[in-house]
Design brief:
alpha/beta, 10 strands, 19% strand
Length: 331
């Protein structure tokens, strides 16, 4: 069932997109002028309020304006994104069901799950990259540790009390690697969605969480959370003074970022994929969108379907290595 946005969130999206609603889109290819002639559905395999959901809704509104058809977002969270992703894999290959997702479903899950109800390569036609971002290890403002070194010292002095929440492959791998390489007992608390995990960390039910910077930054700026580390090799310019996870003992060389992309079911006709790629490329080139997400630490970046296919294949190998190095066994 399609999720509807509260009025405040809908209003916020409208305000953001107002400057770009009149953007000029190129003419559709002659062989695709009959597409679309009915509503398009974008399935997001994560909960409402996540970074992926936010971007999908912005893209949906801009596509709707350009294509003159409703474009609705359908959140289907659960099973590390496998539920919603599987639904797209089984959908008709007609361009009316799309997947906006991340590295978790298209690369990491192959090594995290023993039985995956879809094949990231065989079941999907790549449309376009959307962008790349950073994960942050964060905690509540009044936690008894203020940086990564203090968190690890706390974990050592309080066996069984230090924990981290995660809601996707990036968080799972980052936390497991940190625990294994630093030889500290860190309890993993899995969540269905990042917003739910963040609420519990702020409330003190969990010590820390790994979450994308796009979702975390508003809470970091409001003072409800504080950042302990970033998962990428280099510190992030929006988080001055916050070190990388690789600064911890045993973590040298660690470098993890996340990405978002768009896929259609395998077998979707090439002319329709061309139309879709055109729309998402326009979205990723819209100045207001690029600027808005740059302010939240997310780099908007489009691509051809061929480039996304090659990138996805390389990422499957990369995440296989990261998961093996973290000592994680498929479940």
């Amino acid at each position: 069932m399609t999720k509807t946005l509260p009025l405040t969130r809908r209003t916020a999206l409208a305000c953001l997109l107002a400057p770009v609603a009149a953007a000029t889109f190129g003419a559709l290819p002659a062989h695709a002028q009959t597409y679309p002639n009915k509503p398009i559905r974008i399935i997001v395999p994560y909960a409402a309020g996540t970074a992926t959901d936010t971007i999908a809704r912005l893209a949906a509104q801009q596509m709707s304006d350009a294509l003159k058809q409703p474009v609705v977002v359908d959140n289907r969270a659960g099973a590390n994104g496998a539920i919603g992703t599987s639904a797209v894999a089984k959908a008709p290959a007609d361009g009316y069901t799309l997947l906006v997702t991340t590295n978790t479903t298209q690369a990491a899950n192959l090594s995290l799950m023993k039985s995956l109800p879809y094949d990231p390569q065989k079941d999907f036609a790549p449309v376009s990259m959307i962008g790349k971002g950073v994960f942050v290890l964060a905690t509540r403002t009044d936690a008894p540790f203020g940086n990564l070194a203090e968190f690890l010292a706390y974990a050592k002095a309080n066996p069984g009390k230090a924990s981290y929440a995660s809601a996707n492959g990036s968080g799972i791998v980052s936390g497991a690697t940190l625990a294994l390489k630093t030889k500290h007992e860190l309890i993993h608390v899995p969540y269905k969605s990042g917003p739910a995990a963040m609420t519990d960390v702020i409330g003190g039910q969990v010590s820390t969480l790994f979450i994308d910077i796009q979702s975390a930054l508003p809470q970091l700026r409001s003072g409800k959370l504080k950042a302990l580390a970033v998962t990428t090799a280099q510190p992030h310019p929006l988080l001055p003074g916050v070190l990388s996870l690789r600064s911890a003992p045993g973590m040298a060389g660690f470098d993890l970022s996340y990405w978002m992309a768009v896929y259609a079911p395998a077998g979707t006709p090439a002319p329709i994929l061309e139309v879709l790629n055109q729309q998402f490329m326009q979205f990723t080139r819209t100045p207001a969108v690029v600027s808005r997400f740059a302010d939240l630490g997310f780099a908007i970046e489009g691509s051809s379907g061929t480039a996304l296919d090659q990138f996805t294949r390389s990422e499957i190998g990369k995440w296989r290595e990261l998961i093996a190095a973290a000592g994680i066994e498929a479940e």
